[in-house]
Amino acid sequence: MSVPPTTTTRYLPLSDATVFYRTAGSPSKPTILLLHGFPTSSHMFRNLIPILAPRYHVLAPDFPGFGFTTTQAGYKHTFAKLATTINEFLDKLSVTSFSMYIFDYGAPVGLRVALNRRHAVRALISQNGNAYREGLGDAWGPIQQYWRTGAAEDREAVRAGVLTAETTRWQYEFGTRHPERIAPESWTLDYALMSREGNAEIQLDLFKDYESNVALYPRFQEWFRQSQIPTLIAWGKNDPFFIPPGAAAFKNDLPLAELHMLDAGHFAGETETQELGLMILEFLEKNNI
After folding, report:
1. Where do the DSSP E strands lie in 25-97?
2. Catalytic residue positions?
3. Alpha-carbon distance 90 to 19, whole Å?
4. Given phi > 0 = left and psi -120 to 50 = alpha, else beta, which region is 128?
5. pTM of the model as a whole
6. What pLDDT tens digit does each residue of the chain (289 aa) get?
7. CA 145 to CA 201: how far, in whole Å?
């Protein structure tokens, strides 16, 4: 009976942050970088890592402002800065080639990283990781209003509507057929960490800055067209934030991409972990990775 490699947790000091990350598998094997979304952390990959680690070297960092990564005073929480931190993280670990799993916030962070090291990314796996305007669902309404105005009252409306324990749990459970597969510590940990002093302001700053990612969508799409990067799209079709047209749009720029619509919600990786893990292994094997 084979036993998967043990997942370990580590801290990596960088220039202005100390990045917490989970890792498993031999560094001599091809690397997979797992990038989480809001409001979670590398904790969301705790069940996926053991599936991938027998064949791959898996790295799952927490972004600044999330999980257990810490930052120095003055760290500016923008998506450009998060990408700079992940680039530094990869450099510090001497990672020069990797496949990348992107989910939610992990998409704009990861795709910014890809623009900085276009030839390092061997394959792309998008689990509800959006790169198209048509992928933004109605749930973005209050945040888009905040983009338009930048007004204090709209910032407070986002705080009241999104940064609550109830909404955190709802993001996990909405649209899933299998709520029993979602560990309650997932949303409990997310909300506890989001409730730390000052963290709500970080999250609100990132909601406002998400508009800068939408402005970069054409550059992401240009990279898709130019690179024809091997791509697997595994999309929870009941996601109210990143809706199915966003998944389908990848095929316009990446006609050879694999597209799988899952009967799941935003956190398809929590509820369809086994299916998704096997899908990733088969996809990477087909692409000789």
Report:
1. 31-35, 57-61, 70-71
2. 266
3. 11
4. left
5. 0.97
6. 578 899 999 999 999 999 999 999 999 999 999 999 999 999 999 999 999 999 999 999 999 999 999 999 999 999 999 999 999 999 999 999 999 999 999 999 999 999 999 999 999 999 999 999 999 999 999 999 999 999 999 999 999 999 999 999 999 999 999 999 999 999 999 999 999 999 999 999 999 999 999 999 999 999 999 999 999 999 999 999 999 999 999 999 999 999 999 999 999 999 999 999 999 999 999 999 9
7. 17
